[in-house]
Amino acid sequence: MNRSAALRGGAVLTLIVGFLPGLLFLVAGFVGGVYIDQRFPEYVPYIGHRTESRVDLTQVQQAARLIQADYVDSSVDPKKLSQGSVQGLITSLGDPYSIYFDPAQYKKLQQSYQGKYTGIGIYLSFSTGYPVITGTVAGSPAAAAGLKSGDQIVKVGDKDIKGISPDQATTLVQGPEGTKVTLTILRGAETMTFTITRAQIQVPTVRSATVGDRVLYVRIYQFGAQTSKEFSDALKNGLAGSVGMVLDLRGDPGGFISAADDVITQFVTSGETFETHGRNGVNRHQVGSAHAAPTVPLVVLVDANSASASEIVAGSLQVHHRAKLVGTTTYGKGSVQEDFVLSDGSDIHLTVERWFLPDGQTIDHKGLSPDVAVKLASPANAFDVAQPSQGYANDTQLNAALTLLSGG
Length: 408
Hints:
CATH superfamily of the domain at 206-332 and 356-405: 2-enoyl-CoA Hydratase, Chain A, domain 1
Structural class: alpha+beta
Radius of gyration: 21 Å
Distance between the termini: 56 Å
CATH topology of the domain at 206-332 and 356-405: 2-enoyl-CoA Hydratase, Chain A, domain 1
């Protein structure tokens, strides 16, 4: 059994449509901030050994033999029985972040970690209502078709998707390159239909622009394999001449822990970034050496879909008194998951640690409280850095951040 440690985004609420099992379709449906068509997990090096206790599988074996011998349909698939047994073990934990992926799902998950997938290129947020598009990937089929932030997806094909989960949405929207998917969209009071051809999409995890009076705006959609480099490049190309910076982590479901460490390090010169507690003790993550913006005035935007690695970054910067948080209370995912790859290529994504801020506080199940609480009337009002010409006049949270930076 192969092991790879990961801290997955916990909101599984914001995704990009295309492929990830849970974040994007970057819909990191991530499963807690997961890729649906996208999703991003947080990975950390696995160190240490775990003891194994005995589990009595007698009843499981008896049930499998009974089904194979007496079930009315003799063509029972033993592979499905085996995978269902593993799924049952994971489900019995009652942990929404411990998940079983079959081989095909795990393969897609690995691709999502790299920000690659086949889909249409939209970012989604999920609730009990219809999924809402929060942005499109520049140059994607969705962008070319004219889908916009704030659009609600009512149907995929003929299927009504009210209250759908990220994983279910991924299954419906993703598909082979060159195939088509039809979406019924509610835009205000108008219902529209779009038929879009799926394509291979490489999702950038970081985008930036200059806003206000020489303020560098950087949005991290998720903490993927390329985030550290993309974020460093955004600072290198945009900091010169900037009088302040807004880091937008709204809707960011999480991702690689190493990327979270790197982002914090750009602003903080010493101390812990965060720490993890598990069976093998405490692991304290320390600030690194690359400090591109240690003194730049900084405000961080957060919301209810900011989860996991994004909460590590926002919380650590808040604890270090390096930034003010503006927005709404974050998701509240304070656990770390590790991937255990089984012999058939399937994967157990298992909670193995809990993480804490540098001051020892946990945000699990309660989230981070912003320094300045500001609500956004509608997801459609959020500034879309991929379409900067649309402006940010209705983005109350971004405007509050700019007011803070100006001393207001």
